[in-house]
Design goal:
Strand content: 15-25%
Strand order of the largest sheet: 4-5-6-7
Helix content: 40-55%
Largest sheet: 4 strands, antiparallel
Order of helices and strands: HHHHHHEHEEEEHEE
Distance between the termini: 137 Å
Structural class: alpha+beta
Number of strands: 7
Radius of gyration: 57 Å
Number of helices: 8
C-alpha cells in the first residue's frame, strides 16, 4: 500500500472516531500491507446508510440503462373472429383453386387420350400407303391368280414397266429413240417385277402381240416406252387389311375415273364409291423384309 493510501485510511479513521466516539483501544497488530491491499474495500469504511443509498442509486441507474422489452400488442377480441373468418375464406379459395386446376389437368389428359384413341381409330395412313403400292397393278385390272407364277405374263410385264417409270417420274431416263419413246433398261423392270410380285416371279420380256404403249428390243435389252395418261384407268382404295397366318389380305376397291372422289378439287368427299372389289394377298420377302403381291382373289360374299 502506498503512503498516500495509508494517509487516507488514517484520516478516515480519525473522522470515524470523532463521529461515533472513541474507539476502544485494543492491542491489535496491524495487518500486513499485502493483506490490507487485498482485503480492504472502500465500502467497508462507509456507514451502512451510505452504502445502502449508493447501492439503491446504482440499482436505479442500472435499471435505467437496460432496455425494456416491448410488449406484444394484443388484438382486440372483436377483431379476432374477423381475422379467423378471413383466414378460413382464404383457405377455401386456395382449396377451390387447387381443385379447379386439378380438374383442368384431368380434363386435358382425358382429352389428349381421347384424341389419341380417335386418331388411332381413324388413321388410314397405312391403308393409303397400300394404295400407292397397288396403283400400277390395279390400273391393269388383272384377273384373279393364286400365285405369281400363275399370273398372266403380259399383265406382270405391263405392271412392272409402269412401276419402273412412275416411281422415277421418268427423270432417270433421258435417252430416246427416233420416235421420241423413252428407253428403259431391262434390269430396272426386273427389279420392279420383284418388288411387286416377289422373288419367285419370272419376268418374260417381249413385244406384245397387240399394239400397246411399248416395244421390247431383245438385242439392246431395252424397252421403248411411249407414256400415256393413267387417268382413264382404275385407282385402288384399300378399305381394310387383316392378317391370315403369314399373309396380309387387303380388301381393295376399284375406283372408276368418273368417281367424284377423283375429280373433286376439295376434300368435300371423304371416300370414293368403288365400282368393284378384289382381295389382294400379300406375303413378305424374307431377303428384303418387304411385302409383295402373292395372289389376287375375288372376295367371298
Amino acid at each position: 500500500m502506498s503512503k498516500k493510501q495509508r494517509k487516507k485510511i488514517e484520516g478516515f479513521s480519525a473522522d470515524y472516531r470523532g463521529a461515533y466516539g472513541e474507539k476502544p483501544t485494543e492491542n491489535l497488530e496491524p495487518a500486513e500491507p499485502q493483506d490490507l491491499e487485498q482485503d480492504i474495500e472502500i465500502d467497508d469504511f462507509l456507514p451502512e446508510e451510505t452504502r445502502d443509498e449508493g447501492e439503491e442509486l446504482l440499482t436505479k441507474w442500472s435499471d435505467g440503462l437496460e432496455p425494456e422489452e416491448p410488449e406484444t400488442p394484443k388484438m382486440p377480441e372483436k377483431y379476432v373472429g374477423t381475422v379467423r373468418r378471413r383466414r378460413h375464406r382464404y383457405g377455401v379459395a386456395v382449396g377451390a383453386l387447387v381443385l379447379i386446376l386439378a380438374l383442368v389437368g384431368v380434363g386435358f389428359i382425358a382429352a389428349s387420350i381421347g384424341k389419341s384413341i380417335y386418331f388411332a381409330a381413324t388413321d388410314d395412313s397405312k391403308l393409303r400407303s397400300y394404295d400407292s403400292f397397288l396403283t400400277t397393278v390395279v390400273m391393269q385390272d388383272p384377273k384373279p391368280f393364286a400365285s405369281p407364277d400363275k399370273a398372266d405374263e403380259e399383265f406382270v410385264l405391263n405392271a412392272s414397266l409402269w412401276k419402273t417409270i412412275t416411281e422415277n417420274n421418268g427423270t432417270n431416263y433421258n435417252s430416246y429413240d427416233d420416235a421420241g419413246r423413252i428407253l428403259v433398261p431391262l434390269g430396272d423392270v426386273v427389279d420392279s417385277c420383284r418388288d411387286l410380285f416377289g422373288p419367285d416371279c419370272q419376268l418374260q420380256p417381249k413385244t406384245p402381240a397387240q399394239e400397246t404403249f411399248f416395244e421390247y428390243n431383245s438385242e439392246e435389252n431395252q424397252f421403248h416406252v411411249a407414256l400415256y395418261s393413267s387417268d382413264s384407268s382404275f385407282m385402288p382404295y384399300t378399305e381394310s387389311a387383316k392378317k391370315q397366318g403369314d399373309s396380309t389380305v387387303l380388301h381393295v376397291g376399284y375406283v372408276s375415273p368418273s368417281d367424284t372422289w377423283r375429280t373433286q378439287t376439295t376434300s368435300a368427299v371423304a371416300a370414293p364409291t368403288p365400282t368393284k372389289y378384289m382381295d389382294y394377298v400379300l406375303k413378305t420377302d424374307s431377303s428384303t423384309g418387304q411385302e409383295y403381291i402373292y395372289a389376287v382373289q375375288t372376295p367371298a360374299d
